[in-house]
């Protein structure tokens, strides 16, 4: 599968330098063989980013549904996102590379779509939290969504920067505890 091959390669090298020859070799194909499945490298990247968007959103949505309260849903989503980044360390590297491009690419569009759907789910959980009294009604939902995503991404950036996946595992509970304190209703 091309997605698996690209993610494995991105975990150990600069995603921008991955060639179709390397992807094909990782898949056990010739370079010509990969082009029987994909018309271009951009199509491969789009396919990978669409898979990432679908899989990550599916995991955080399942995590949200498995919890019994809005705050618990948010925590489950946070931990599911971190677990995804730990399982697929090539994904953050690819995302950061795509987001640096000034032009609109199919992969960048897939990431934007993910952020929109993810934001809607976070908004729903925050609004549910406000309705049941778990979340402070005076906070901006939009700001809380940005804080949530930024907190997860901050952990991931630091882990990628230092090549320390263990930092994600250890830092996630404390980081979410700070987020929870920021949004909780004062008693």
Task: Note down, in words, how this protein is organized.
By secondary structure, the chain is mostly helical. It is built from nine helices and no strands. The termini are far apart. The model has no long low-confidence stretch (mean pLDDT 92).
Quickly list its features:
187 residues; single chain; mainly alpha
Could you give the topology of this structure?
Blueprint: H1 2-10, H2 20-27, H3 31-34, H4 41-66, H5 70-87, H6 90-99, H7 106-132, H8 141-162, H9 165-183
Give the structure's gist in a few sentences.
Helices cover 76% and strands 0% of the residues. It has 187 residues and is mainly alpha-helical.
Low-confidence stretches: none
Quote the beta fraction: under 5%
- What's the average pLDDT? 92
Question: N-to-C SSE series?
Answer: HHHHHHHHH
The rounded distance between the terminal residues' Cα atoms is 52 Å
Counting DSSP E segments of at least 2 residues, the number of strands comes to 0
The portion of residues assigned to helices is over 70%
Largest beta-sheet details: none
Shape: elongated
Q: Compute the CA-based radius of gyration.
A: 18 Å
- Tally of alpha and pi helices: 9
Going by helix content, strand content and strand pairing, the class is: mainly alpha
DNA-binding region: 19-38
Protein name: DNA-binding transcriptional regulator, AcrR family
Organism: Desulfomicrobium norvegicum (strain DSM 1741 / NCIMB 8310)
GO molecular function, one term: DNA-binding transcription factor activity
């Amino acid at each position: 599968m091309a997605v698996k091959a690209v993610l494995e390669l991105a975990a150990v090298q600069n995603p921008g330098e991955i060639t179709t020859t390397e992807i094909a070799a990782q898949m056990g194909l010739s370079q010509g063989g990969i082009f029987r499945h994909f018309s271009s490298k951009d199509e491969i990247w789009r396919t990978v980013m669409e898979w990432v968007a679908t899989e990550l959103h599916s995991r955080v949505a399942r995590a949200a549904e498995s919890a019994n309260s809005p705050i618990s849903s948010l925590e489950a989503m946070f931990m599911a996102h971190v677990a995804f980044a730990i399982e697929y360390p090539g994904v953050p590297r690819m995302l950061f590379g795509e987001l640096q491009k000034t032009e609109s690419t199919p992969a960048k569009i897939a990431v934007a779509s993910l952020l929109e759907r993810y934001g809607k789910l976070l908004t729903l959980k925050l609004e549910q939290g406000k309705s049941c009294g778990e979340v402070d009604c005076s906070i901006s939902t939009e700001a809380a969504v940005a804080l949530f995503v930024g907190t997860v991404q901050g952990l991931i950036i630091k882990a990628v920067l230092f090549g320390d996946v263990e930092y994600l595992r250890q830092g996630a509970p404390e980081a979410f505890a700070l987020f929870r304190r920021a949004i909780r209703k004062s008693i």
